[in-house]
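Hey L., structure's done. Input below.
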Amino acid sequence: MVKGFRLSGFWTALFASLFISVLSVLMDAFVSAPGRAIRMPDGATWL
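Output:
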């Protein structure tokens, strides 16, 4: 997708994706409005 982009291996990709995910969650916690939450409709279940 990006010309010249390469990964050195599976573990590098795995740890990079985990780092980006944790960073995203932390940034969302600081930026999001207080009390904002994902609410499920009545009777719905998470998959």
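DSSP finds one helix and no strands in the chain. The chain has a mean pLDDT of 81.

-- N.
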